[in-house]
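Lecture 7, part B: from sequences to assemblies.

Below are the input chains for today's worked example.
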Amino acid sequence: MNSLRAKSESRFLRACRREPVDCTPVWFMRQAGRYMPEYRAIRAKHSLLEICSQPDLAAEVTLQPVRALGVDAAILFADILLPLIPMGINLEFAAGEGPVIHNPIRTPAGVAALRPVEPCDSLGHVLETVRLVRRELDGKTPLIGFAGAPFTLASYIIEGGASRNYLKTKQMMYADPHTWHTLMGKLARVVADYLVAQVEAGAQAVQLFDSWVGCLSPDDYREYVLPHSQLIFRELSATGVPAIHFGTDTATLLPLLKEAGGEVIGLDWRTPLDWGWRALGFDVAVQGNLDPVALFAPRAELERRVRAILEQAGGRLGHIFNLGHGILPETPVANVKAAVEMAHESR
Amino acid sequence: MNSLRAKSESRFLRACRREPVDCTPVWFMRQAGRYMPEYRAIRAKHSLLEICSQPDLAAEVTLQPVRALGVDAAILFADILLPLIPMGINLEFAAGEGPVIHNPIRTPAGVAALRPVEPCDSLGHVLETVRLVRRELDGKTPLIGFAGAPFTLASYIIEGGASRNYLKTKQMMYADPHTWHTLMGKLARVVADYLVAQVEAGAQAVQLFDSWVGCLSPDDYREYVLPHSQLIFRELSATGVPAIHFGTDTATLLPLLKEAGGEVIGLDWRTPLDWGWRALGFDVAVQGNLDPVALFAPRAELERRVRAILEQAGGRLGHIFNLGHGILPETPVANVKAAVEMAHESR
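Predicted structure of the full complex, as structure tokens:
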């Protein structure tokens, strides 16, 4: 963990490559969001889709947590469902309800009608946000781009929103694998192009969010998901920037997530960091894995939990401190800031 | 798997004790329920709480799947939240919304006010259902009693209903462990007495449903849950009937669930049966673990999935075929029946 040289570079990017760092790098999933008063001030005047589609607003929101928290990376402010809009999905963020898709896709004809996407045209506002943020950050803090993974996007498209049992998603898998693979192939194509475009616009790392893939058994993951996520990571590796592969509930999927790709695998809090890293093998970096609810705990309890994770990492090269999932809306900002400092004391 | 002698006894109870069976026993969580037309006919005239509180109705609903499906065990029709009512919880099943608790408990005073429960008095209707069902089954098919585990019950009491992040539940754990343990101790006392009373009324096995415990890390399980569930299994083992310990999302918790207790550990579909059994050790029986959505698949695909589970069980003594969670409301009855036959072909 000791390298004077590391101090002048990005400890986040060094950790992604499992190189020595001066202390454990930290960022948080959903570090820009409703828990921050600066964000709520902008959100009071603009809808989520407005913020995402106006690069100056999206860039400002991306930068807020970098200024306020001292995190070691910025992550693009956007929504994983944005690339679905140019594909032909009629998406709405209903107040307090999460995303609603008014035209869920459940038939071969529906899948066939989904349009290909040219990111530079129809997602140009996101790429412009990447460029604005990079200019603003001026090389000091790296910027992470991201996208939703094909499975997680497919689950929204098919269910029409968030889901508890993924009934219709799995029904398509099991009853009509051809249509399923066609849909996944289309999504993988869009996501790969979108992420590569983000890298070309300046993203210095990317994260693929397969947030809900943990509802699958390993056999189903291998058959219905792995080849599609693998295509994305294969195309990303040609760009040279590190890729983070994240999901929740993935304890039994870890070797397959690694096989699909990514220089860094994200772990949720159900998987103890040392258990998960051993299951993956130490030839890959890991990211995680504080329970987002721990940020609501009294300070001493929060500190005990941050320290436990650092101890499980055991000073190995390639640990990025993060939560096991996104920051929750009511999280106290002071605790988020304190967690950054605690992780940084790990030198 | 070959014992002529086993045929004349209950293959379900024999499998719980890891004794030879003539073929793999089968039952399904939520095998009595909305997917069955016979159940919907009764539900059209009575609320869920009415059915639970009238022993003749509850017994009838308990027996419906035994008659219709040929399963190897009946499970008492009841709701895991019933014992909360005499404790002082104001519970309602709102249409299509799941349970709503109008007086969620989040303070030391609220926990202190929860009343102890004498099952023979305030849950006498459930015990009467057990007696009625036993009389009806006449020794041919064993009856499983059940209760919710302290953690899962606590999560409903504290959140006021179902939850996604268990924010308030974990907040009590982390910020006020004394109140948490007081609540869990009270729940464990009620659940232990309730299950022992079910056994005394005639239940020949019991299942403890810790359905939502998989939202915890192993460290949190050990500290905040294990001692309370352990008390229940300790008192159950004095009764001599086998106990099944079930949860979902438990891949990293399995050794701790076994430590807490149970002759049989339930696995969900995220955990391959052979992986899970190895993690537990083969000195305990296992139950599971078909994805409930597989019951919606075309027949050949369903058969492939049932066979895969039987192959993972590998003919070891102590496998009870079941789903990884409860039957979903729209499940086709014919597929449930077919799955029973497929599992029985495993001799």
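Note for the exam: The domain at 4-344 of chain A is CATH 3.20.20.210 (TIM Barrel). Keep this in mind when comparing with the next example.
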